[in-house]
Write a structure and sequence with these properties.
Elements: H1 3-28, H2 32-65, H3 69-92, H4 98-113, H5 115-118, H6 121-134, E1 146-147, E2 172-174, E3 177-179, E4 187-195, E5 199-209, E6 220-225, E7 230-234, E8 242-247, E9 250-251, E10 261-263, E11 276-282
Parallel strand pairs: 1-5
Antiparallel strand pairs: 2-3, 4-5, 5-8, 6-7, 6-11, 8-9, 8-10
Helix pairs in contact: 1-2, 1-3, 2-3, 2-6
The chain binds the ligand Nc1nc2c(c(=O)[nH]1)N[C@H]1C(S)=C(S)[C@@H](COP(=O)(O)O)O[C@H]1N2 and molybdenum atom (MO).
Residues 157, 159, 195-197, 269-270 line the site of molybdenum atom.
């Protein structure tokens, strides 16, 4: 393998690791400032892979003509991943408007001409960052999600396999007994529900603060769904966590978590536990749980 080919291969590998790590991380972060960086790195490294695709495919074609099976497998795997990344970029931007799409096509072709310069690692980094800046999708939120304004148009989304249970308006189980949310002081907050599936919505939620439940002291609070789905929060967050019964002035629908769902401002959608039946106080730290729900 010559020097240029090695540079391309190493760069492709570094970009694959970066794009994967930042992609997983992007799922976890909900705070706009941080998300902007993570999504920025993710987008830029993905576009960098796209940029290297022509050079990489030439290396693979050359490699296939030479003997040595494991090298061929490696080469094809790297190229396959780069292709996947390219497809992923296309899918990501499928929904953007036509004017922006028109700007996108010539851009990709120009990078073809610039292939030689792209061979230099610095060129790739600069090119990726630039592509990320001019690429469509800027109208999205910092997390990469697109906005939904209408409260009645908010998608009903499950993390994975949860069914939509139809629950009666039961009291909530808390340590040492039960509470009736209707008997506690209501609070209204505006908060952004931002699903890792790629949409967000800022809505008005009404319910009772976890801090107003009169819970005993402890390190963390577990919010438990009728389905078994659960998330753990630091007890210090009880002041901002809301057990909501209403969305935009209306009772929650079954799909959105009736009779009670959690509103966790600043956290991604998968923290917003629906169909809450119990709140538990535990001594384990909040991070002592799977980083993502398993159901
Ligand atoms: N019990 C339970 N709660 C859940 C989920 C789930 O699968 N089960 N999905 C979460 C995810 S991933 C998101 S984005 C939001 C979606 O809320 P919505 O259906 O009201 O839009 O609910 C969260 N709460
Ligand atoms: Mo989600």
């Amino acid at each position: 393998m010559n020097g240029a080919a090695r540079t391309v291969n190493v760069t492709v590998l570094v970009l694959i690791v970066t794009v994967t790590a930042s992609g997983v991380l992007a799922f976890a972060v909900g705070t706009p400032g941080l998300a902007q960086w993570v999504v920025g790195v993710h987008g830029a490294s993905g576009l960098g892979l796209l940029l290297l695709l022509p050079a990489k495919s030439r290396i693979v074609r050359r490699g296939l003509r030479r003997p040595g099976r494991s090298r061929k497998v490696m080469g094809l795997a790297l190229a396959g991943f780069a292709l996947l990344a390219a497809a992923h970029v296309v899918v990501h931007h499928r929904t953007r408007d036509r004017a922006r799409r028109a700007r996108w096509r010539p851009l990709v072709r120009r990078t073809d001409v610039d292939r030689r310069r792209a061979l230099l690692g610095t060129g790739v980094v600069a090119g990726s960052a630039l592509l990320w800046l001019v690429a469509p999708g800027r109208e999205r939120r910092e997390t990469g999600s697109h906005g939904i304004a209408d409260a009645t148009a908010v998608p009903v989304t499950q993390w994975m396999f949860d069914p939509v249970p139809r629950l009666p308006g039961r009291p909530l189980r808390v340590p040492g007994g039960e509470v009736d949310l209707a008997a506690l002081p209501p609070t209204t907050v505006r908060a952004v529900l931002d699903c890792t599936g790629g949409w967000y919505t800022e809505q008005e939620w009404r319910g009772v603060r976890v801090a107003d439940l009169g819970l005993p002291a402890g390190a963390s609070v577990d919010v438990v769904s009728a389905t078994g789905y659960r998330r753990r929060f630091p007890a210090a967050e009880a002041g901002t966590l809301l057990l909501a019964t209403h969305l935009a002035g209306r009772r929650l629908t079954a799909g959105h978590g009736a009779p009670v769902r959690l509103v966790a401002p600043g956290r991604r959608g998968f923290w917003w536990v629906k169909w809450v039946v119990a709140v538990e106080v535990v001594d384990e730290p909040w991070w002592w749980q799977p980083p993502f729900p398993l159901q």
